[in-house]
Amino acid sequence: MTAMLSIGVMGSACERTQETIDDLDSRITCRDYCNKKADCEQHDASRDELDACVSDCRSAIEDDCGNEHQAAANDKIAECVDQSCTEFWACMVFDAAPECFAFVGESTMAGGAKP
Fold first, then answer.
1. CA distance linking residue 58 with residue 3, whole number of Å
2. SS3 52
3. Which of 4, 14, 41, 71 has its CA 20 to 30 A from that of 30?
4. What is the pTM of this model?
5. How far apart are CA 107 and CA 105, in angstroms?
6. Handedness of CA 22, 47, 53, 72 (dihedral sign)
């Protein structure tokens, strides 16, 4: 009985550790996404604008996406930010769980237009 309880506790601890790692990755990839977004919109975003963008991105990925999709969503953003602006916007689609990228369709920074 004690062994089964230990395995259950270890499993929960591992899941929390993975979620913590994924959340850290989301912070980094969302910051990269927001910087790329500002660059592609040719907008010198303020710190407040970048922070709001990162917050929206992280909320979608960490809260709405589900733990089973979070790592893949982070990987997809990392893949997209390395592309040209035209390819970047086309890349920012996550068919496996569209709710993960709900922030992409939100208004652009300071009225900039997506190409």
1. 37
2. helix
3. 14
4. 0.78
5. 7
6. negative
